[in-house]
Amino acid sequence: MSGASFRFVTGLRALATVIVLLLGVAGSAAQIAIPAASPVAGDAPARQVAVVPAASDSQIAARLQDILLATDWFERPSVTVTDGVAFIDGAADTQDRRSWATNLAENTEGVVAVVNRIAINADVGSTFDRAVAESAGLVQEALQAWPLVLLAIVIIAISWLVSMLVAALARRLLTPRIDSPLLLNVVVRTIAIPVFLLGIYFVLRVAGLTQLALTVLGGTGLIGIIIGFAFRDIAENFLASLLLSMRNPFAGGDMIEVAGHTGIVQNLNTRSTVLLTLDGNHVQIPNATVFKSTIKNYSSIPSRRAEFMVGIGYDSSVSLAQRLIGEVLTTHPAVLDRPEPLVLVDALGDATINLRIFYWFDSAAYSPAKINSALLRQTKNALLKGGIELPDPAREVVFPKGVPIMQMDAASTATAPQSAPQPVPPAPEEEACDATAEEGDLSSESSAIDQNAGRVPESEVNLLKP
Known about the structure:
This protein has 466 residues and is an alpha+beta fold. Among the domains are: 3-121, no CATH class; 127-230, no CATH class; 303-393 and 427-432, Alpha-Beta Plaits (2-Layer Sandwich), CATH 3.30.70. The chain has a five-stranded antiparallel sheet with strand order 7-6-5-4-8. Strands 1-2-3 form a three-stranded mixed sheet. A three-stranded antiparallel sheet has the order 9-11-10, with helices on one face. The protein has helices at residues 3-24, 57-71, 95-106, 124-174, 181-206, 210-230, 232-247, 287-292, 318-331, 368-385, 410-415, 428-432, 446-451, and strands at residues 74-82, 85-92, 113-120, 255-258, 261-268, 272-277, 282-286, 295-297, 303-312, 342-348, 353-362. Helix 3 links the parallel strand 2 (85-92) and strand 3. The longest helix has 51 residues, at 124-174.
């Protein structure tokens, strides 16, 4: 049925309804307002439906049911009114038509409440028809909007190209001024991303979505805050890596001590700092922990101080022991002359006078453990050769029943087992040498460990200077 025919039939039905009501209430002053045009699904009546002031519930129900039948939108519509409460039954194809019936009843005089019990048809045929209708509507809207879509694509493409050009120009200008690659990337993106967002804003403005454009531009900051709270640890490590790459407290290959770990720096990425410990293990420390902790860098200054302690007897000359140990330190090639080595009396112990020895050496060239071993060996030999006593700590042994004395005869002495053969003492020149074969050449083992580092974790990104 065409739109004109539908309106013609609807008008005839409405006219017939008016005539019947006028004949039934002849002489009354009631007037009934009928919509001039066909109602549209989802739209409320333009004005209230008038009913005679003394209209009964049955008259209101009949009037509403006639209107529902006139629209031809509902299946088996039925309306009952009890004490001003309208009960609507039947079936409809869409939710909009069901809502329209509710609005119609609510705008009818004499109706104080509406109970809509109209069911929505959910059969396959009607659902398919609605899907086809919606698809056709979407296709029609797409055909009408394709110039706008094409313009939006062009603006976005131009914005992307301009942002790339701005990023390339910013990188070229800032590379000589910013040493940290991570900081450089952050600054370049901070400059380039607003250019692309400006293009998105233009697209939304052209589409007539000005409020949405402002929401998008203002919401980027809010989204950043939400992401920052959700990934607080990740953001904290990222910011710490940015600060570490800017301040450069250490470089790749430096030996540092941080957060209770000592090792050679292998890598600094956006999440952690990787150390190679002296026992050959990789340790990954979160950058936030590294940034907050005390960092001891053993490689920042070549010279490094070490110490050891020696105890001599009370009968020995302290000044002689100091001179002998000083000669060992000054003659050893690994010990630096400046700052000069020191031999100081540290404490008067129970059985010994404790001397603490301080010396400086080149940490990049020598191993502290090897040097300490060589100096202790030479110090012991020099003190014993100079007649300095190196006693054991005092020990007190208590015998509650006295000290037992046993007498041994000559026969038992003759049959006593012979003591084990004493080991051959090393040659004097070996004891006095600067480094034994076991001590190696006293060189630092850092280079050898670093060469055998193997696969460094997360080595794809390294923010450290070589």
